[in-house]
Amino acid sequence: MTLTKAQIVEIIHEELPFPKNKSTEVVEELIEIIKRTLENNEDVLISGFGKFCVKNKRERRGRNPATGNDLILSQRKVVTFKCSGKLREKINS
């Protein structure tokens, strides 16, 4: 099962003394802060959870899977995530 943004808002609303609209604002603002930081090519480190990083991918040769034709994939940036050791331990225990 996938945890959605709406479910996160609901959990915050239930577990903290925030009205639902305030819980929504908190979640939306947190996501915006993370997006802005990544747009500025800065990493986002959340202790005990993990680190989001922006990586540069260089131009490379690829193939269209539908037609089999070769093509060049342009350079681009991708976001990667590396979980913390604490999170990894919790997942594997």
From TrEMBL:
<dbReference type="GO" id="GO:0009893">
    <property type="term" value="P:positive regulation of metabolic process"/>
</dbReference>
<dbReference type="InterPro" id="IPR005684">
    <property type="entry name" value="IHF_alpha"/>
</dbReference>
<dbReference type="GO" id="GO:0006355">
    <property type="term" value="P:regulation of DNA-templated transcription"/>
</dbReference>
<keyword id="KW-0238">DNA-binding</keyword>
<dbReference type="InterPro" id="IPR000119">
    <property type="entry name" value="Hist_DNA-bd"/>
</dbReference>
<dbReference type="Pfam" id="PF00216">
    <property type="entry name" value="Bac_DNA_binding"/>
</dbReference>
<dbReference type="InterPro" id="IPR020816">
    <property type="entry name" value="Histone-like_DNA-bd_CS"/>
</dbReference>
<keyword id="KW-0233">DNA recombination</keyword>
<dbReference type="GO" id="GO:0030527">
    <property type="term" value="F:structural constituent of chromatin"/>
</dbReference>
<dbReference type="GO" id="GO:0005829">
    <property type="term" value="C:cytosol"/>
</dbReference>
<protein>
    <recommendedName>
        <fullName>Integration host factor subunit alpha</fullName>
    </recommendedName>
</protein>
<keyword id="KW-0810">Translation regulation</keyword>
<keyword id="KW-0805">Transcription regulation</keyword>
<dbReference type="InterPro" id="IPR010992">
    <property type="entry name" value="IHF-like_DNA-bd_dom_sf"/>
</dbReference>
<dbReference type="GO" id="GO:0003677">
    <property type="term" value="F:DNA binding"/>
</dbReference>
<dbReference type="GO" id="GO:0006310">
    <property type="term" value="P:DNA recombination"/>
</dbReference>
<comment type="similarity">
    <text>Belongs to the bacterial histone-like protein family.</text>
</comment>
<keyword id="KW-0804">Transcription</keyword>
<dbReference type="GO" id="GO:0006417">
    <property type="term" value="P:regulation of translation"/>
</dbReference>
